[in-house]
Amino acid sequence: GDVPSEALRCEGQSFRVTLAGEHADDSGGPFRTIFQTVSNELKSGTFDMFIPVPGKKEIYVPNPRCNDVSRFTFFGRLMGICLSSNVHLDINMAEICWKFLVGEKNWTWRDIANVDEDFKIMFEDVKHRLSRKEEDEDSNDLYMKVKGIDGTEYALFPGGEKVRVRGTDMLRTWLRLAEEYRVNELKVQCEAIRRG
Hints:
The protein has 196 residues and is mainly alpha-helical. It is built from 8 helices and 4 strands; from the N terminus they run H-H-E-E-H-H-H-H-E-E-H-H.
């Protein structure tokens, strides 16, 4: 069954570990080994819960395509156990995740730009086009879609991947919808981690 969070809140080890076939007394070594193994498995992609930040292979974000929020809630519990037990969980999460975990919920496109250089370049390019009031429709290769942190392109509304952005009103709409999509992209997973 599910162990209540309160049962895991204690100083020191919240549970004891026995490794099958090993003759180790759990004075902390096997306990720490479990968390190192979990960290390695999460970074390997085995559970599809975390993905590396584009261009920064040692920094991770929750995988927005992993919809099993119970996994992230459990991960949050593991984080809590590590904090109370003084054990290191070796997964370097991006700053945007930590901002949410400590209660900062007002993310902006700049927070996304800090972990996704391609998005930063695209967003700044569209802002630049808007500031110049660029309306050259023939040179505009922008559609109502945005690339997510996982590299997948997402329509900003149903059918948006087929709608070419034309004119300043649509540039403003693209900026608003792209920022809205990207700042909300990781919230479900981060909320589950925080809840755990």
